[in-house]
């Protein structure tokens, strides 16, 4: 049995570079960038007025200023600055050469002779300087970046109307267990519906993977072997749920061994979801999740999520846990293992307890907003204490 | 000028019920549920073994127990429980009638005569009781719920292999300004590329809306009127960026008035992004965002995001801000307005300062993980203080 941290270090050290494809900018949200993108312009591209007002020389501010003309956004000044003069200027317009301040319209008065008088003691500069944000040839985004909305804006600003991204990776999903029937079936008295398959499919979809739900495998070696072999050949990652433990009917480890999948770990000291398997055959990876839906969901979030991101080419993974205060006193009986508890958030943005009966209680997750960590050895936490939480 | 809270109350009170469509379960992630879903089964559907071990009567635990048979997941006991007897049982299997405890395999010993001896003082019950999570006819998910991965699992458990969801709403996006050129063009010395259009398009896409980027409108009344009129007719929501303030070239308010768009607000006491417009013509809504990309991004997150969710049919909006500690001392000069600062998170999940030059500095947002609130009147915050933050 290894710690969660050790399991994460093993999973997240996987590297894979999928093939690339070139897509228009409006189709790359949430995809992984496959090229380094450099700026072909300075940003701002010129000294830019930050406010509506008058551009002039600071040293002229005590004089009444002659208005030489107007500079709108998208245009340039038509004359040169003279002493004791200024330009009417709009937000976003290029500040004419020689001007070193833009005084705000609200701080000026128009005199009867048409000249402009500055009515304040001093002014902020109100100029965004050429290249102060980005210089030509600066690296804007590097290959391996998950593209968020703001990055789409950055790509547009650098003239990238088409973008090279990694192709989606394929994830095969197999739920195991004789007790399972597909969602469209009515279960008989000893059966339940397969909820893990569709849930894990959706979890993989949410990460941009091409998720292939391969249905249910019974607790029998031959069919289990056939379907796992197929998935190993066709997919970058195979995710199994159930049958992964060490019970008499837990055939997954036996079959995986037979299929020459090398075990990287088989048990993680975390609750819920101790029996989590990770292994590899060539470049094809296998993750075995526990059969209980909450265990499966928690382990996916703690381990599989970033594994999929790494396989998909993402290399800007960062800490995703956030420090949040508890709004209640928390207690647990057995403090041996690290635990991740599903919980809600209250109106104040603090963690609030959830009506949760245990790792079979899938419906509780519909109300959960976070998973928070209770470290190994910690049996109680006080209201107001800060915990590490993953946002769901 | 109204407060952010007032603006949110106005925007988020909009209601709209889009048409519905029926989709297979594996196509409804991040869609809005359009029907109330009730359970057709109890969950668990039977008293379920929570561990691998032996099912028996608590009152028999001091005796050596005869093993009557085995109950695997998906099967039922073939005989009835007798006094001083038990069943070998697997996790997930139905507990046979009469048994009121499942003792863990690890806590038992097999005697030479084949009987089972319980080796501990006492045992947890280790049974998940019929219906303890969900009863037949319980409401599982209500119309208006944003479907997350765990909800897909819940729908599967209730036998929903197809689901009624709301059709995506249409959002038209127009960037205004004579200084703008499209991303594929090389800007001349007074121009910049249109980054707001693609960024807002991606922001709307990330909420599941059908985003239509209508390109750039110049600062001229006639073309502006034509394109806004078209978007008002074709889309549920039109988002404009730039030209929304009160400068000489800010024609958006003039044109909107001419097109009989009723103003709901035109200025919000928040930084960055004070000049934010919200209005309505019939059932067609208009949001005017500031031209600076960071202002535009912040206002989208503070106001437009939940407006789109409401229009899309979502009715389970909840507080999205989270209480997080600052990892540094924060100061600002002008504390008049409420401010939302882009920031990073450190390894400990606390807010970390970002290299950020102001509302034109789009590239800074590629490194931002949160926006955090500095309330009106607050000029400084100390390291360790808890602030309200939106996760990006």
Keywords, separated by commas or semicolons:
homodimer; 392 residues; alpha+beta; Molybdenum Cofactor Biosythetic Enzyme, Chain A; Molybdopterin biosynthesis moea protein, domain 2; Molybdopterin biosynthesis moeA protein, domain 3; 4 domains; 6-stranded mixed sheet; 17% helix
Q: What are the SSEs and their pairings?
A:
The structure is a homodimer of 392-residue chains.
Chain A: H1 4-11, E1 20-24, E2 37-38, E3 48-49, E4 53-56, E5 66-71, E6 85-89, E7 101-104, E8 108-110, E9 116-118, E10 127-128, E11 139-141, H2 149-157, E12 162-166, E13 170-176, E14 180-181, E15 192-193, H3 196-206, E16 210-217, H4 221-234, E17 237-241, H5 252-258, E18 262-265, E19 270-271, E20 277-281, E21 284-289, H6 293-311, E22 322-325, E23 330-331, E24 338-345, E25 351-352, E26 370-374, E27 380-381, E28 386-391
Parallel strand pairs in A: 5-6, 13-16, 13-17, 14-15, 17-21, 19-24
Antiparallel strand pairs in A: 1-12, 2-11, 3-10, 4-6, 4-7, 8-9, 18-20, 20-21, 22-28, 23-27, 24-25, 24-26, 26-28
